[in-house]
Amino acid sequence: MNKGTIAALGSISINIALIFYCLYTQYKEAPKLEAIVKIHERTGALFKVAIFEPAPHPAIDDITSGFKQTLEQGTHPYDFKIFNANGNKTLQRSQAEEIVHGDYNLIFTIGASCTQIIKELTAKKELKTPVVFGAISNPVETGIIASMESSGNNVTGVAEVADYKKQLAALTILKPTTRSVLLVYDPGHGTGLEKDKNEIEQILNSYNIKLQAVPVYNAGELQQKVEGMLSGIDVVLVLMDNTVVSAIDGLIRLCNRYGVTLYASDLNSGLKGAALAFGVTQKDYGVESGKKALAILEQGKEPSSIPSTPLDAFFVTVNESTMEQQNLLLNPTLTFLLQETRFVDGSTQLTTNG
Fold this sequence. Notes:
The chain is an alpha/beta fold. It contains 13 helices and 14 strands. The protein has three domains: 3-40; 41-161 and 282-311, Rossmann fold; 164-281 and 313-353, Response regulator (Rossmann fold), CATH 3.40.50.2300. The strands form two sheets. The chain has an eight-stranded mixed sheet, with helices on both faces. Strands 2-1-3-4-5-11 form a six-stranded parallel sheet, sandwiched between helices.
């Protein structure tokens, strides 16, 4: 056998070895290769999305989670950056300035204050950056959009709808001994809470229940203001109010200590320790907002052409771990509902958190 033949055979052997090595590597790395293929299946440019949160809270985390998960089901890759103002209005303003200068393809805002600031800044700077909001009440009355059908600007979203008649009717069923309610709220919240307070007072008057209200303008003053007003109070009522909700842990401790039933207007506060909670599943705000964001970014729709929509599937939860501390006593109706998981007021489902 001459040297040329030996060299040729050596080359063939090396090539065969390479082929087997490549096949082995492909088999071994199949999961990684599959992941790479899936990434490349998401066509188009990377979309940069800012998420603007007013304060830390599980409800807000759920909204953000629902929004991100919905967009991640789209055909484009996404890069999210989360801004959280930690309930600080000065920080919120500086973060809003950073966001509008950040060259984002879309801004997702949670709550009224974040939405209002971004809407004002984009209008002032004549920016067309699309804005999708989640979980704000009265978006038309507060001037964020012109109408639910068409915003008339670069904004659309999912509105929070309060049903105080149903919420307070549930209270009279679950705690029929209620004669006094303390409303803790931030009048400067910017979502018409002063108007809501007046509506709540009228409804409670019809049940012969007295309402007292304590204004709280920042989370730091909540304990000092509320603690001195709990004497003679049966129920502390909290609305969808980012200032108060951001300090819900302290309010839960106060209600536990003084034996007052805490009635929250979001289900996450019920999970944290409010004996009663009324509201929607927060994640759905993010899911529905995410659908609108996909229509804007992947279908090329203008925000003004996408109607803003309400989220109004309400539930009531009872926290069995704190109900005794907060003086929510069992009565025949409550016992029956806890056992049977029936409906309150025809359409409000009762669930329990133990």
